[in-house]
Amino acid sequence: xxxxxxxxxxxxxxxxxxxxxxxxxxxxxxxxxxxxxxxxxxxxxxxxxxxxxxxxxxxxxxxxxxxxxxxxxxxxxxxxxxxxxxxxxxxxxxxxxxxxxxxxxxxxxxxxxxxxxxxxxxxxxxxxxxxxxxxxxxxxxxxxxxxxxxxxxxxxxxxxxxxxxxxxxxxxxxxxxxxxxxxxxxxxxxxxxxxxxxxxxxxxxxxxxxxxxxxxxxxxxxxxxxxx
Length: 228
Fold this sequence. Notes:
This protein is mainly alpha-helical. It is about 85% helix and about 0% strand. It has twelve helices and no strands. The protein has helices at about 1-20, 20-40, 40-60, 60-80, 80-100, 100-120, 120-140, 140-160, 160-180, 180-200, 200-220, 220-225. The model has no long low-confidence stretch (mean pLDDT about 90).
């Protein structure tokens, strides 16, 4: 059916984005969203909008990501679907954070985290904690950031989401590097690299390698850093 096909297109587009094939991802997601709208499937449209926003975020187009995710949030609120609202809030917060609006991002994450806790939705709780960790780090609250990242990694391990666990471990590694804990940072990047390779999440593999490069730079091993 067209409903099943539209959902499949959105999921396939999401997988393509995670694996780093952004042009194909955008095409699939756009087609899936178009079909959802033709079918008047508003929940599905909100889902498609979130995935388009996430794909735009991956390539650094934060303004476009913010636009898609804002539209998803508006639609989710109209539907009065708590899960969809929480998911949209959490993703919108990341585009907001990336544009430097830290306090706005924190407010979005606070609402998203509260809604996710009311649903006992461990995935979105972990996602919100990761976001709060980034915001706290950006604002210099390193202890709060570390607590958020550590709580997030615990949840990702329980859920079994290797890609998200790897991403949060990279954020934790970057924070530990800034704090001077090079050994802790190295362990974080190493775990992230192994997990992301196993999960075949190419963008996170790149992030882990960049983390190692930063450590080598700090040690003065310039050539090794360039190789990484």
